[in-house]
Amino acid sequence: MSDASITTTQEPEASFGDYVALLKPRVMSLVVFTAVVGLLAAPVAVHPFIAFCAILFIAIGAGASGALNMWWDADIDLLMKRTARRPVPAGKVTADEALAVGVALSGLSVMMLLLATNWVAAAILAFTIFFYAVVYTMWLKRWTPQNIVIGGAAGAFPPMIGWAVATGGVSVESLLMFALIFIWTPPHFWALALFMNADYENAGVPMLTVTHGRRVTRNHVFGYTLLLAVLAVGTAFTAIGGPVYLAVALVLNAQFVLGAWRIWRRDETVAEADKYKVEKKFFRLSLLYLFAHFGAILAEAALRPWGLGGW
């Protein structure tokens, strides 16, 4: 038998980019940004090198959570168009490799943050990784339509970690930043679910659109958006707010409430006919919404030493 007649099938070798994708870099960017805002908005200055190290370890912790999520969710990721090209379901990284990366980076990030800063920041980071990987990914996501509501806490902890890096503790201000992300998460993800419902149905994920239908989901989007608007505008009159933040909050929350109202009054037939144009627009606005609010908090912190920030 000649060598030419022998064929072998090899698994595609993972590239560096595949391992980066395993860490969910887009989610990581939001984590890093909100953690930076929490750190810089705190009333205690942090040495630039310590701040850099802290943000790096927080980012690594976020990446570890992403890897653990992809390890556990590989089966349902394969069934959804939005996630089928992720490294594990695409066969570029094995599930065992994803687990190993996630566990190793989890331990590294928490240990290094503890050494670089303080035990409060490290403890919150450790709890964040546990909450996202175990409580949300392994339990809530496949068990309850409130998965996004409760699980949203995982994405809301980073500014609290940044604040704890600077102050060594938790305060009303850091809890307000937590609350902004926590209340923002349901309308953000439910808007996505309205036009990606087939993915969740195919994967058997009990998203609210699957278990209760789009009409109920639209009601929830509007209700949470109203609650978020009150919280966001009210934050302007706290220690992390000010006139710049108030201006941003008023404009964006007016747009956000209007978008949620349009979603609430939509008829499903019309929504299907225009391919969920209004829902997709609201989802895109939700991304700008969070970055702009935290950017405004950061602007107030930057202006404060000049006597211009805050009230």
Automatic annotation (TrEMBL):
It comes from the Bacteria. It is a multi-pass membrane protein. CDD domains: PT_UbiA_Cox10 (cd13957). Pathway: Porphyrin-containing compound metabolism; heme O biosynthesis; heme O from protoheme: step 1/1. It catalyses: heme b + (2E,6E)-farnesyl diphosphate + H2O = Fe(II)-heme o + diphosphate. The chain crosses the membrane at residues 27-43, 49-72, 93-113, 119-140, 147-166, 178-200, 221-240, 246-264, 285-303. Keywords: Cell membrane, Heme biosynthesis, Membrane, Transferase, Transmembrane, Transmembrane helix. It is found in: Cell membrane. Converts heme B (protoheme IX) to heme O by substitution of the vinyl group on carbon 2 of heme B porphyrin ring with a hydroxyethyl farnesyl side group. Interacts with CtaA. HAMAP family: CyoE_CtaB. Carbon 2 of the heme B porphyrin ring is defined according to the Fischer nomenclature. Belongs to the UbiA prenyltransferase family. Protoheme IX farnesyltransferase subfamily. This is Protoheme IX farnesyltransferase. It comes from Lacimonas salitolerans. The lineage of its organism: Bacteria, Pseudomonadati, Pseudomonadota, Alphaproteobacteria, Rhodobacterales.
